[in-house]
Design brief:
The complex is a heterodimer of chains A (about 290) and B (about 350). Chain A is an all-alpha fold and about 290 residues long. Chain A is built from 11 helices and 2 strands; from the N terminus they run H-H-H-H-E-E-H-H-H-H-H-H-H. Chain A has one domain: ABC transporter involved in vitamin B12 uptake, BtuC (Orthogonal Bundle), CATH 1.10.3470. The chains are: A mainly alpha (about 290), B mainly alpha (about 350).
């Protein structure tokens, strides 16, 4: 029982990383209706910008703020420059552009900052939280920031006119345009916000996994899994999904003997697929009914 | 994400010679007459036949590899382009095909030719079985499920209980087959012709399939599942079969790939390979079968070209080339060819 409790706690603390990423994934899914394979790399690049600023002597929170703003602008710029010209191309072509962006950003980061592992400071320190060695104060802070972000997003989407316009543009572009919403700018805004949230996720994750160009690959996959499990239409569900993935992964690694650490990811994914077979829209997703 | 929007060949409705209601079923430059298409095919075939005599062995090997990838992409195209299902798991079927060939040849002493049908059948069964639970999933959810398959494959191949057969991390080394009947060809040239023959057979089967009743049922499901069901199409059966069939093609490609590379190891069959197939499919043209060859060539050569341009920034060069291609040809080579055909005809 002791072991179970510890593993769940450890799962929650890794789950916080995935939850952060899952939130960014849902954000972009709301705006553009598909998963962005380059999301992790965008977050990684932002984190490198923050690292560079801190190296240059900028205080942490100022660097944090600058990075979020720069990432927001970067996200909008990517949408305007790369995706606007081909907005009518088939969906799979967009997916290929994501893959291309992934490759470009990863390679650029490696070129600028090379592939050596760098440590990244944490604003919350790394002392044990509540006397437990399994969850550090940084991870506690990460959970808090993720939940705070979730609350902000909820308020933004429910109570501000821009938030409502974004939801309308994503849900029904044609009607949204008719009521005067600039749909294509809403998409760009979605990209910007996703990039900004991604950068926050990156800066929170970096103290745990260390900073290097490939740091986000597996985290993004877990983030996807969390978002899909919780339901891609529900930010709260995605955060919960992220935590759930962390816990499932940890428990599978501990309690299923042959599996071992290597098969953690596949097992977690299999569990998720099984859940999806019974709940095809995710645990908290809205079931979309289409009219024929 | 609804995958049925991304097919390329919606533009020639009302153009098809026999007045069929599904012109997407016309492969190979959807608008060209069948006579012109036959001539193009024969010219290409003639070029393909004399190429090995003119080129170095390594280039011949690369062309063979291109055809192998093309066969795998053909399989993916049947699934995505014609049935509207999305897969990131085809590296798994490719791996199963490759390991089937390797194990049969090295552990059982079976001739390489016979490994292909076996690999195909095994992959069909696996694909069909995987397709059954996947029936309930669509779009990104299906992508995630197939992604799980791709992520698990290298790890499963490394599992210790299977090590006797799979060779664990080390993989299996395969002996390269010689040309039969005393043909005056070296091994690379022979494998080139062998792959060419297999590829042509599979291609003809695919074109016949998509123009058949079955093909029309698959496309009906892609375009409107509910309408297809109410017309009496057994959607579950067809979708699972499409998965199986697609896996069959990819499995045969995997077996051929193992034979020509002479080596299989778990880490050759990662998600990267699946993503590569997807990229190849899109640059070739979703829903246009001949595009597979272009996709295969892209998959093999473009990373090398990028490496040649800049070692440090090869990933960036690759990505930019990919973006450039999508800008020029948003629907892949298929849309490009279509535009040229239309232009030539003065439309």
């Amino acid at each position: 029982m002791e072991l179970l409790f510890q593993q769940i706690l450890a799962g929650i603390s890794t789950g916080a990383i995935y939850a952060c990423m899952a939130l960014a994934v849902v954000m972009i899914y709301q705006a553009i209706d598909h998963l962005n394979f380059a999301q992790g790399e965008m977050a990684m690049f932002s984190t490198f910008i923050a690292w560079q600023l801190i190296e240059k002597g900028v205080p942490y929170w100022l660097a944090f703020l600058i990075t979020v703003v720069v990432s927001f602008i970067g996200g909008v710029a990517i949408e305007r420059i790369v995706f606007k010209p081909i907005e009518h191309a088939p969906v799979l072509s967009h997916v290929v552009i994501f893959i291309a962006l992934y490759s470009v950003i990863n390679s650029m980061a490696g070129f600028i900052w090379d592939f050596t592992v760098k440590s990244f400071p944490s604003p919350f320190g790394s002392s044990p939280l509540f006397g437990s060695t399994l969850i550090s104060s940084h991870q506690g802070g990460m959970v808090a920031v993720t939940l705070g972000l979730l609350l902000l997003l909820y308020l933004f989407f429910s109570y501000t006119s821009v938030g409502l316009a974004m939801r309308a543009a994503a849900a029904n572009p044609a009607s949204a345009r008719l009521v005067g919403i600039r749909v294509s700018w809403m998409t760009a805004l979605g990209w910007g916000m996703a990039a900004a949230i991604g950068s926050i996720a990156g800066m929170l994750i970096a103290p745990v996994v260390f900073l290097e160009p490939n740091m986000m690959i597996s985290i993004l996959l877990y983030g996807f899994a969390g978002a899909v499990l919780g339901g891609l239409t529900s930010p709260g569900g995605a955060v919960l999904g992220g935590f759930a993935v962390g816990v499932i992964e940890n428990l599978a690694g501990t309690y299923i003997p042959v599996i071992g650490a290597e098969l953690k990811l596949p097992i977690a994914l299999v569990v998720i697929v099984v859940v999806l077979v019974f709940k095809p829209a995710g645990l908290f997703g809205r079931v979309v009914v289409s009219r024929v | 994400m609804s995958t049925h929007e991304e097919t390329v060949v919606h533009h020639d409705i009302g153009e098809s010679p026999e007045g069929e209601n599904r012109p997407i079923a016309r492969p190979a430059g959807a608008n060209t007459s069948s006579g012109a298409r036959r001539i193009i095919f024969l010219v290409l075939l003639a070029i393909a036949l004399i190429l090995p005599a003119l080129l170095k062995n390594f280039v011949v090997f690369q062309l063979t590899q291109t055809m192998v990838y093309a066969i795998a992409i053909l399989g993916l195209n049947l699934l995505t382009g014609f049935n509207g299902q999305f897969s990131l798991g085809h590296s798994a079927f490719y791996a199963v095909g490759a390991y089937t060939a390797a194990i049969m040849m090295e552990h059982m002493g079976v001739g390489y030719v016979w490994t292909l049908p076996v690999a195909g059948v095994i992959c069909f069964i696996l694909g069909f079985l995987f397709g059954l639970p996947a029936l309930r999933l669509e779009g990104v959810y299906l992508a995630l499920a197939t992604f799980a398959l791709a992520a698990a494959t290298p790890q499963i191949l490394k599992l210790s209980p299977l090590e006797h057969w799979t060779g664990g991390v080390q993989g299996i080394v395969i002996t390269k087959p010689d040309a039969p009947f005393g043909l005056p060809l070296n091994q690379d040239q022979w494998l080139y012709y062998f792959t060419l023959i297999v590829g042509i057979i599979l291609y003809i089967c695919a074109t016949n399939l998509v123009t058949s009743r079955t093909g029309r049922a698959l496309m009906a499901i892609r375009d409107n599942p509910i309408a297809a069901r109410s017309m009496g199409v057994n959607t579950s059966l067809y979708k699972a079969s499409a998965f199986g069939l697609s896996a069959l093609y990819t499995g045969i490609a995997g077996a051929l790939g193992a034979i020509i590379v002479q080596f299989v190891a778990p880490d050759s069959f990662t998600l990267t390979l699946s993503i590569g197939f997807l990229v190849g499919l899109v640059v070739g043209g979703v829903g246009w079968l001949p595009g597979a060859l272009f996709g295969g060539a892209f998959l093999l050569f473009v990373p090398n070209i990028a490496e040649g341009v800049s070692k440090g920034l090869s990933g960036a060069v690759y990505g930019l080339l990919l973006i450039a291609i999508i800008y020029v040809m948003p629907s892949g080579l298929a849309g490009f060819v279509q535009a040229i055909v239309n232009k030539v005809r003065g439309k």
